[in-house]
Amino acid sequence: MIDRRTFLATAASTATLAAMGYLPTASAAQISFGKRTPFSFDALVARAKDMAGKAYQPPKRPPQDILDKIDYAAHGQIQFKPEYAVFADGPGQFPVTFFHLGRYFLSPVQMHVLTRDRNGLTAREIVYQDDYFNMPADNPAHQLPAGSGFAGFRFQESRTADQGKLDWKKNDWVAFLGASYFRAIGELYQYGLSARGVAIDVAEPEHPEEFPNFTQFWFETPKDGADTVTVYALMDGPSISGAFRFDMTRKADVTMTIDAALFVRKDIARFGIAPLTSMYWYSEAQKTTAVDWRPEVHDSDGLAMWNRKGEYLWRPLNNPPRTMASSFSDANPRGFGLLQRDRNFDHYLDGVYYDRRPSLWVEPTNDWGEGAIQLIEIPTDDEIHDNIVAMWVPKAPATKGSSYRLGYKLYWSANEPFPPALARCVATRLGNGGQPGNARPQGVRKFMVEFLGGGLASMPFGEKPELDLWTSRGSFSYIFAEPVPNGVAGHWRAQFDLTVDGADPVELRLALKHAGTVLSESWLYQYHPTPNLTR
């Protein structure tokens, strides 16, 4: 599996290669196409259903010894020539360019262009040739045979619209690369967390995890000037096959409307729908002394949920001592997402701009039934691993022969698209319990939870919100709320001490209220006690 640093470095390599002189000026060029075949999404759905009724056949790969030679350094020398970009000369605003196969991108993907006439859609495959790529003469990629396929694709920024004076040849806004990974940028122009087609048996000890591949893509020829592009995809893996339609809109942020038909080939223990994968190493809530010079390192800092009852929930992320799976039951949720709420550069001090990483929100658009939003947190000691997964898991088991037709939207943006009219949690801080000047008691932890906005901004002078607190075990003391002394209206912090024995996780819940009115979203936290912690 590729790590997130490899993906981000690959997706962002165009500008570097241009500086190295590998990108020529654009000139007329011709893509090699295969024969014409009819296409429809209904036919693609039928094809996926038929595949699920048969034994899984892994896709054929180019020679492994050649792929192994295309290591990180060799892959970094390879760049798609912009003059071969699909739709580079119109119609449509957004050209399509392609990623090359290599040691970390082994699965070949077939690409097709769709055109429409009075008889419907017609597909033609884009046949791989190494002429499409700039690379040194001694690069081992030259040894791959014609027709080897591609590793993925990306849509470049607009050729025609003003996108902050961006050069479309050097800047892209969505990328599909590696298995069923895909990413998009928001209005802050940074890649970060990723989405996937489905997630199978994540954190199931007796079952290997599986992320089925997108094996083929079809690009519908867009109307000239349109800000939405349509892509179809065929997905296949040992446990499932499926057909996807992506309608992707690039404005200030990126919105994807997805129609997915999924067909289960064999029983699945944990079936994750609309999975989001991210990285959380540490933040102000959790940092081992001198683990790294930076104050915080994470792509996302919390899981936000809007349930069917209308409750807004915020669960700060953890880097746990062992793999943890948390489940939040619901029926037809209104939405959920992994968010990056902390946008202060001084909290990161990193040249990779964690403060600009997009948030990603999932909005179901049809009936998802009963199930749970599940959060998987995996221990990590570095930033190169995606150790966080959030997904919807249906209550009914995903058994061989079952099928799903799912509609949902993905919003890649700086903030969640449907913010509540409540105060939001903006920080979670932990420290030793007790009071300054007194011996700090063992087994006591202090929590400072900050909320901002909503009704807190109009609190009557001299009054304070009350803390509505709950814990799965242990007891509370020293409970109070106070405004944060920074002069910002509506910025309050809730403080309490938790006394608890043992090392088993503790579930906590907190909301701010005043005169019976809820003022904040509900803060949920999973605390992992460290026995005898006194410093």
UniProtKB/TrEMBL annotation:
CC per GO annotation: outer membrane-bounded periplasmic space
**Which molecular function GO terms apply here?**
carbohydrate binding; catalytic activity
Q: Which family does it belong to?
A: Belongs to the OpgD/OpgG family.
- Keyword annotations: Periplasm, Signal
Domain Glucan biosynthesis periplasmic MdoG C-terminal intervals? 39-527
Q: Which InterPro entries match?
A: Gal_mutarotase_sf_dom, GH-type_carb-bd, Glucan_biosyn_MdoG/MdoD, Glucan_biosyn_MdoG_C, Ig-like_fold, Ig_E-set, TAT_signal
SUPFAM superfamilies linked: E set domains (SSF81296), Galactose mutarotase-like (SSF74650)
Annotated compartments: Periplasm
Report what the protein is called.
Glucans biosynthesis protein
Q: Which organism is it from?
A: Pigmentiphaga litoralis
Principal cellular location given in the protein's record? periplasm
Q: Does the keyword Signal apply?
A: yes
Signal peptide residues on this chain, from the entry's feature table: 1-28
Q: Which GO terms describe its biological process?
A: beta-glucan biosynthetic process
Q: Does the keyword Signal apply?
A: yes
**Pathway, according to UniProt?**
Glycan metabolism; osmoregulated periplasmic glucan (OPG) biosynthesis
